[in-house]
């Protein structure tokens, strides 16, 4: 049996006295703060702009595949009436137009609210 690498089930020859003694298979014990000894304050695996962009590209790619499947499965024609306008279009196209209109209306309302809050913040800063 080799003494350099412990196998599962091997017991340490001397019991640790404080619970923080180094074990041969684990390296140095963690610092009292819970961080490994010698660790930097910053997390080297934190999110970055590149990782955010990568996640966005992957997410949009998945969304595009789902959109293509949706359009391919909903090719039946339907009659669309709005005010005095009438026309026939595939179901998928009608739903995508309605979704796009909803997204645009939501974006406009959100943008107006952001502008309102920025103006209020600037006014509050000037009044100080």
Structural descriptors:
single chain, two-stranded antiparallel ribbon, 128 residues
What does this structure look like?
The chain is mainly alpha-helical and 128 residues long. It has a domain of 79 residues. Strands 1-2 form a two-stranded antiparallel ribbon. A hairpin with a 2-residue loop joins strand 1 and strand 2. The termini are far apart. The mean pLDDT is 77. Keywords: Cell membrane, Membrane, Transmembrane, Transmembrane helix.
Structural class: mainly alpha
Basic shape: flat
Order of helices and strands: HEEH
Low-confidence stretches: none
Rg over C-alpha atoms, rounded to the nearest angstrom = 30 Å
In percent, how helical is the residue content?
40-55%
Q: Count every helix, treating DSSP H or I runs of 4 or more residues as helices.
A: 2
Distance between the termini: 76 Å
Spatial order of the strands forming the largest sheet:
1-2
Q: Give the strand tally.
A: 2
Strand content: 5-15%
Q: How much is the average pLDDT?
A: 77
Q: What's the story with the biggest beta sheet? A: 2 strands, antiparallel
How does the SSE layout of this entry go?
Blueprint: H1 49-73, E1 77-82, E2 85-90, H2 91-127
Antiparallel strand pairs: 1-2
Pfam family, one: LapA_dom
Keywords: Cell membrane, Membrane, Transmembrane, Transmembrane helix
Biased composition (Low complexity): 1-20
Question: Could you give a short description of this structure?
Answer:
By secondary structure, the protein is mainly alpha-helical.
């Amino acid at each position: 049996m080799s003494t350099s690498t412990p196998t599962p089930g091997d017991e340490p020859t001397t019991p640790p006295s404080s619970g923080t003694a180094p074990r041969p298979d684990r390296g140095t014990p963690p610092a009292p703060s819970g961080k490994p000894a010698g660790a930097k304050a910053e997390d080297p695996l934190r999110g970055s702009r590149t990782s955010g962009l990568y996640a966005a590209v992957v997410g949009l790619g998945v969304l595009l595949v789902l959109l293509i499947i949706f359009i391919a499965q909903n090719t039946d024609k339907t009659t669309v009436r709005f005010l005095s306008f009438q026309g026939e279009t595939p179901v998928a196209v009608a739903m995508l137009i309605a979704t796009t209109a909803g997204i645009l209306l939501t974006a406009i309302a959100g943008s107006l609210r952001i502008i309102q809050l920025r103006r209020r913040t600037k006014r509050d800063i000037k009044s100080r």
